[in-house]
């Protein structure tokens, strides 16, 4: 794990800058190109990019000179470039002197030096004239960085024609920030951490670096050995970062400072509100300086800070009384306009609460409900806790308990539910408390027996048919969530499409998502996908009427796995990533954890070892921070499996030991028959397989599959049984997989059954057809293994061309699997018996070159090229160029 000092010392990766570096490389080669100008805002990484250009030039054997232009150096003619001028050159006659400099640097015009000028816009006029003459004489190639938005009076001197190439460096995208963090930290970074770092830095490379260094120094950024996580809290970075921002903001006028203070505390604000504290020309100046931006939302113009970190720095400098005045004034302005927008009540209440520590209880109730609707759980806690004890209602306590549950604080949530129970006076209120108690006990504390006891107690005191129906739905959720989907569906199949038919909409919304998961586990995949879409639409329509509606993405989350098992792993992956992208921006940690869990399973089915490892680690990290114990046990086992799949047996063993310790803390789960954990079985079996104990691995999987079959969990049972076949036990499981395929609607179950049958039947042609069908579903690793098994059978039948073709297919598929090693893959020899000349011709042909183009390039006759290609086709077992790229693994 890198230290802050190591991160500070190492150069940061140039993610997304390849195009610019390639442009520079081409400029070096073509003498007609005189310069490359790199434009971009401050901190975006222009200097780092220029350094990379210098490194490339020096590796090519060119002389480079580094020039840093500054405002101070600009006060002296040639102040910045003086060190470039060779000793002894007389500059008393500038025309002759400049020519002498050009001659000395150019060494007679045979070579060019590379002149890298950082902050070109600060260069003095005399230096500009010298640089221009060096470029025109062919003595120097200019690489210059220019800060966007700064005055650049000498721009015309460098021109914009074909001889000067301009490139604009943009801030990192969120995806690029994730790549940078993973590279710098040397490991996987949680999606939430990447998102928060992107949001705080706005993709600015300099700000991102200082934020990472600051988080490492403070201990806010840590790794559990698999994934880096950022602790909650403000993102202020290092003292250097705060000084840089403060210096940038120091140019702002007094009126501009008032606007920045308003935005730091209340952004976004209407343009009219900003004009209430400053004149329009002050706002225009702030926009020119890059301190604020104006965005259009419908018919309104909103003013925001140009960068998220500006608010952190400005807030630090606002005195307490000044802060109070700004907040109360803005609240009064909004109220004077009628506070008509939906979120106005939330803003006004929050500002008054921050300013004075109190607010109108009626407003607090209303604001808390709005915050809950937008899934802002920290705000819900803050608003409800601000209410005086005498003003608390059952609804308030339920809102608070729900927010605490979502934030991973189930013990505190249980305390609030006990208080809500003591306040409840009606059957409706009592039912709401029991339902919330079940959710918290099951999903937050992993105490299924406690939730069932609460249901039994409720049946003793709640008598109405509506209440009993809600209790039955809760029981179905518990059974399905505890690995008994068939039993759970006996209760959940009564759910109506219309949530209004249930007396408690919050219960319906939770139960709808559990029903999708239960349908998926029992192989009712089309029904699961259709139900998920209907439930999602209903969720969108009625969630504002529910006291504690989960995030709507939870309805589609189980459909991720249903889509994969239906035979489209690619679409399942895309759906899961879309859902995770929605959730990563919210405080909804539990849905995020489940989507990560389903994505991990999808990647396991695909055989993508790194993807499975990353998403399992993400799931475990979220679970640990949110007390999300339900899927954590399975994800820990699956994480060990994905480690073992790439040969990391030590980390896999350590993860299984950690799972043993976690099981000791969750012993009560055995009460519900959860001794069978598919993920744990996978982890133990693949660790055994990776250490050479194949018979024990198969026995472990078979034992776990027996327990899953009794519960109706066809999905997990089939997943374990196909791995038995992959580990040499196809004969033991072929019939069982066929029975599962007959009961399941999924294409994946059918092709898994055929895979096992083909392995058992020693039929290489059947295996090759199955390999193609597996690839069509997205199951790359199983497809590679089927091809590997076929290659071995072809080889035993002395069909060498067919064996080579199957082996090459295996290799091409295995390359997608991110380093996965399995016993079947180890049986195939993928060495291609091509000569050096044959390999060279084959790769050119695979890349699309014609025989004529290959002949011209290699100085051969077309006939010779075609003869070599015919020999290659024979050795590789392909029939033409169309199959050649796949055979060679060319992408």
Automatic annotation (TrEMBL):
Could you tell me which Pfam families the record lists for this protein?
AAA_16, GerE
Please list the GO terms describing molecular function. adenylate cyclase activity; ATP binding; DNA binding
User: Which superkingdom heads the taxonomic lineage of this protein's source?
Assistant: Bacteria
Q: Name one GO cellular component term.
A: cytoplasm
Under the heading Gene3D superfamilies, the entry gives: P-loop containing nucleotide triphosphate hydrolases, Winged helix-like DNA-binding domain superfamily/Winged helix DNA-binding domain
Name the InterPro entries on file: AAA_16, P-loop_NTPase, Sig_transdc_resp-reg_C-effctor, Tscrpt_reg_LuxR_C, WH-like_DNA-bd_sf
- UniProt xrefs under PROSITE patterns: HTH_LUXR_2
Residues of the HTH luxR-type domain = 827-891
In Swiss-Prot or TrEMBL terms, this protein is called Helix-turn-helix transcriptional regulator
